[in-house]
Design a protein that fits this description.
The protein is built from 9 helices and 6 strands. The protein is α+β, with helices and mostly antiparallel strands. The strands form 2 sheets. Strands 1, 2, 3 and 4 form a 4-stranded antiparallel sheet that branches. Strand 2 and strand 3 form a beta hairpin.
Length: 246
């Protein structure tokens, strides 16, 4: 980043440096990053509509003993907050975190982002936490995939006055927790189509941003990098929206 600021005029313009201004040392940037955490400028700790695996930087320095790798018996020596996690059956187990976002369907802006430990229930637990932070007493809806089609998640959403537009998982034991009282409405069908847009900022964050393989360790630092990435996405998105409205 410091090298880019040396010669990239767009970077200089964005941070308020003239062509002749000296660029600060990289250590100053690192100190300021720590201040963001110390003063809660970036939240120190869900998934509203999509969750993706964030591969931890601990992978390069993790040490394990022989035997089956389990979080109860194994941990990374370089990043104890990272957890052993598989994205799907048959996939490679990695030291990772889970990244969660809450997106506003009408404009594609991220209104909540958070990193959590990679556990089997983190997606639904963090989703409820993020949804509970939304302002206003009016009734809201949330789109989600089949993994969230559980009785507990549906009940928790309704308790906080969020209507769960969850994709039905008819193969689960006992059938889907969502019935025709929800699916018969036109808004449910709209949510099923629009909810997939939440993958767009994740794709941008992996290609343009740094979240494909985070370069920091520890839950708070990874959470900070994750939030700053989606602040960048929102700035880009707002520019596009203003351009269309002009």
């Amino acid at each position: 980043m410091m090298e880019q600021i040396q010669y990239n005029l767009l970077f200089r313009w964005f941070i308020g440096l003239t062509v002749d201004d000296a660029v600060w040392n990289h250590s100053s940037f690192s100190k300021n990053r720590n201040r963001l955490l110390e003063h809660d400028v970036v939240p120190t700790q869900g998934r509203g509509q999509s969750t993706a695996l964030r591969e931890g930087w601990a992978k390069r320095g993790a040490r394990f003993s022989w035997g089956k790798r389990l979080n109860d018996t194994h941990e990374s020596k370089t990043d104890p907050d990272a957890r052993i996690y598989k994205k799907s059956k048959g996939s490679e187990a990695k030291m990772a975190y889970l990244g969660h976002t809450l997106m506003k369907n009408r404009n594609g802006l991220i209104v909540g982002a958070r990193i959590s430990y990679a556990t089997g229930t983190a997606e639904r637990d963090t989703a409820v936490e993020l949804l509970a932070t939304l302002p206003g007493e009016h009734r809201k809806t949330v789109g989600a995939d089949k993994n969230d089609d559980t009785g507990d998640f549906i009940d928790q959403c309704r308790t906080i006055k969020i209507t769960p537009h969850v994709a039905q998982n008819d193969k689960r034991r006992g059938g889907s927790a969502i019935d025709k009282r929800t699916t018969r409405h036109e808004g449910y069908q709209v949510s099923m189509k629009v909810r997939k847009r939440v993958e767009e900022p994740f794709g941008w964050g992996k290609i343009v941003g740094p979240i494909r393989q985070v370069m920091v360790r520890g839950l708070d630092r990874v959470n900070m990098a994750f939030n700053l990435t989606f602040i960048g996405w929102n700035l880009r998105r707002m520019g596009n929206i203003q351009g269309r409205c002009a």
